[in-house]
Amino acid sequence: MINENSRKHVRKTKHAAKAGGGGGIWFFGFIGALTYFLHVHSGTFWLVILAILKAVVWPAILIYHLLLFLRV
């Protein structure tokens, strides 16, 4: 027999699982950026680390410049 507290927990889990569709798009963007930056910065260990860091940060830079462009 399931008590009321466990039913509420199940409902919250089902609700949270429905709202997460954009992660895959960001992941493919990350993979594409990583491929590009690794191609540009291939060579030493530190350049590869720099390429990984750039691939992680590029969405924030993209949104920043998009908002600057849309500003009137």
Description:
This protein has a domain at 21-70. It has helices at 4-17, 23-40, 45-70. It is 81% helix and 0% strand. Helix 2 (23-40) crosses helix 3.
Low-confidence stretches: none
| Helix-strand category | mainly alpha
- What percent of the residues sit in helical stretches (DSSP H or I)? over 70%
**What integer value in Å does the Rg equal?**
20 Å
Number of continuous helical runs: 3
Instruction: Quote the beta fraction.
Output: under 5%
3D shape = flat
Order of helices and strands: HHH
Strands, count: 0
The major β-sheet equals: none
- Report, as a whole number of angstroms, the end-to-end distance: 61 Å
Map the helices and strands:
Elements: H1 4-17, H2 23-40, H3 45-70
Overview in brief:
With 72 residues, this protein is mainly alpha-helical. It has helices at 4-17, 23-40, 45-70.
Which features does this protein show?
72 residues, mainly alpha, 3 helices
